[in-house]
């Protein structure tokens, strides 16, 4: 019995066949835009991510501002924990009538925020830096409101309290400015 010779196999050149390449890329899930508008050229870059995408273009002075905030928050927290009555007297220009536990709790909360600031100083992730700035901005806004209400209730306006309110408005403005500039998308070239 004689066997028929098989016809020679024709090799398909998929690199030159555009339809085949598009089908392959569609099956792999590359070449199209993802949720962020990025176009991945390979499955590996899609899985690992584009490192340019994660590079944060920080506003000038951002790290210095976070360092300054971390130091100020830490110092204020330690003062509130160690010397609660003196801190109250400096701000409101009168002796404290209630127990000092509320000011110590305030110091503990500030110390927690200072730890967030110290963590935000050493991270490279944009989201963590944004949350750090947002936490700081919320603190300044709430402290401004609470201090204002307390001053209205006490019916007094000492110079130290005015300085505290003005500084909180300034700090809130600077923090929100950094938060806004960090959240902006860079212009594509």
From TrEMBL:
It is found in: Membrane. It comes from Carassius auratus. It comes from the Eukaryota. The keyword Membrane applies. One of its GO terms (cellular component) is membrane. The chain crosses the membrane at residues 62-83, 103-121, 133-154, 160-180. This is Tumor protein p53-inducible protein 11. It is a multi-pass membrane protein. It holds the Pfam family p53-inducible11. The gene is LOC113118484. InterPro entries: TP53I11. Keywords: Membrane, Phosphoprotein, Transmembrane, Transmembrane helix.
